[in-house]
């Protein structure tokens, strides 16, 4: 396993989870449905980001 693939997945999951958490905290209360949304955002970001490979390096100009 490449560290770059895992690192980008972790950063994407943290970003998605944080964004969902701040959105859910708009009324200062988090209900069960909002926790489910946060969990799905984190899991979706982990899965999608890990599955998509990094782009190949382009030639130097």
TrEMBL record:
It comes from Nonomuraea terrae. It comes from the Bacteria. The chain crosses the membrane at residues 36-56. Keywords: Membrane, Transmembrane, Transmembrane helix. This is Uncharacterized protein.
């Amino acid at each position: 396993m490449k560290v770059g693939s895992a690192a980008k997945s972790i950063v994407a999951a943290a970003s998605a989870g944080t964004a969902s958490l701040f959105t859910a905290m708009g009324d200062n209360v988090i209900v069960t449905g909002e926790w489910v949304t946060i969990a799905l955002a984190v899991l979706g970001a982990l899965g999608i980001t890990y599955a998509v490979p990094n782009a190949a390096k382009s030639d130097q100009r």
